[in-house]
Design a protein that fits this description.
heterodimer, A: alpha+beta, 5-stranded antiparallel sheet, 4 helices, B: 12 strands, about 35% strand
């Protein structure tokens, strides 16, 4: 049921995810932050059961922090982070799988912005834009039409807004709140949200 | 829906005169949805051995890393290059070792042995291998691929002719399969080097 969207632009990546935490007929929360920051310049939008979301993202984030501590402050590139995630997912797949679908975005000084699409079976692919969940049926074609190589941050946010608007109009399940984060040379920052995750 | 058909794939390996070719499509899908048109399914494990991995995308990536590791370890320990026959047997053993929890891959191997003689083999997901001297196919449209190869294949094709044959056989086959296509790549391995070309096909 979760919606995760992402699009790269010239100078960064925009990640967006819905904020609902629900199961069966009950809504637990409508201000959940599903875009977990991994390092100073990377984050991943996650779709899946809340337990796997939390366990997997915290495990990855802490392992990346450990790498930095062990390697004198060197950060792993976004590509390396994505491949590390893939290894962990692939390893767990035939033992106790994490049912998480990810969109991992990051900004590297040399490589610039990059976005990696990963499904719960641990298939990894670098993409220019992507989405997970039922949202794909509504949003992938919008992104196919609107995406260009030289988008500005404003353009990218507008495309995400089109996608969110389409979901609000045509998707059966109500997802009123969306969290949107931007990753660029200055790091990860929140662009806007529907529900404040800090509200208990 | 079979797990082997979840992501979609189509690949052919064919022998020519002192050369081999291996071609594959570029689609990564999740059943009906297409995620990427750039997904790599054919990997060079050494300059004379190429392996095509058709099946579950996650296992394609896992197995590629595993095979590269095994080949490199062999070459470090043995201090010699691995022949394609040995690689094919290695692959078969790796697959059978997971007999009761297999990798969902049906691979094909194409290479030139130390005398630059073409080698081709294909196997199923648990390592039953077959070696031929004309062509091997794998993927979600093997019926189409077999038909095209049987029709277009001629023995002792030169590298350029082999490229053309592979390209036409692949493109025509994937055009009738919803789960494969969205571009293609062809590698022609000759004693002097490898020629790689991207194919532009129907993007649907």
């Amino acid at each position: 049921m979760d919606t995760v969207l992402a699009i790269t632009y010239k100078g960064g990546v925009v990640l967006a995810a819905d904020q609902s935490n629900a199961r069966s007929i009950i809504s637990y929360q409508s201000n959940l932050d599903k875009i977990k920051e991994l390092t100073s310049h990377s984050a991943m939008g996650v779709a899946g059961p809340n337990c796997d979301l939390v366990r997997f993202t915290e495990y990855i984030a802490k392992n990346l922090a450990l790498y930095q501590l062990n390697h004198d402050g060197t950060q792993l590139s976004t590509k390396a982070q994505a491949n590390f995630c893939r290894s962990e997912l692939a390893d767990a797949l035939r033992k106790g799988p994490y049912q998480v679908n990810l969109l991992l975005g990051g900004f590297d000084e040399k490589a610039g912005p990059s976005l990696y699409f990963m499904d719960y079976l641990a298939a990894l692919e670098k993409v220019n834009f992507g989405s997970h969940g039922y949202a794909s049926s509504f949003c992938l074609s919008i992104m196919d039409k609107e995406y260009r190589e030289d988008l500005s941050e404003e353009d990218a946010l507008k495309i995400i807004d089109y996608c969110i608007h389409e979901i609000h109009t045509r998707f059966l399940i109500s997802q009123p709140n969306f969290m949107v984060k931007v990753i660029d040379k200055d790091g990860v920052r929140v662009s806007k949200f529907g529900g404040d995750p800090a509200d208990t | 829906m079979s797990i082997l058909e979840y992501n979609g794939a189509a690949m052919i390996a064919m022998a020519g005169k002192n050369c081999v070719g291996i071609a594959a499509d570029r689609r990564l899908g999740m059943q009906a949805q297409t995620v990427s048109c750039n997904f790599q399914k054919v990997f060079s494990v050494s300059d004379k051995i190429y392996v095509g991995l058709a099946g579950l995308a996650s296992d394609v990536q896992t197995l590629h890393q595993l095979l590269e590791y095994r080949l490199n370890l062999y070459e470090l320990n043995e201090e010699r290059k691995m022949s394609p026959q040995v690689f094919s047997t290695l692959l078969s053993n790796v697959l059978y070792s997971k007999r009761f929890g297999p990798y969902f891959i049906e691979p094909i191997v194409a290479g030139l042995d130390k005398d630059n003689k073409p080698f081709l083999s294909g196997s199923d997901l648990i390592g039953a291998t077959v070696s031929t001297d004309d062509f091997v196919v794998s993927g979600t449209c093997t019926g189409n691929l077999f038909g095209m190869c049987e029709t277009l294949y001629k023995p002792d094709l030169e590298p350029d002719q082999l490229f053309e044959t592979l390209a036409q056989a692949l493109l025509s086959s994937v055009d009738r399969d919803a789960l494969s296509g969205w571009g293609g790549v062809v590698h022609i391995i000759t004693p002097t080097g490898v020629m790689t070309k991207e194919l532009k096909g129907r993007q649907d």
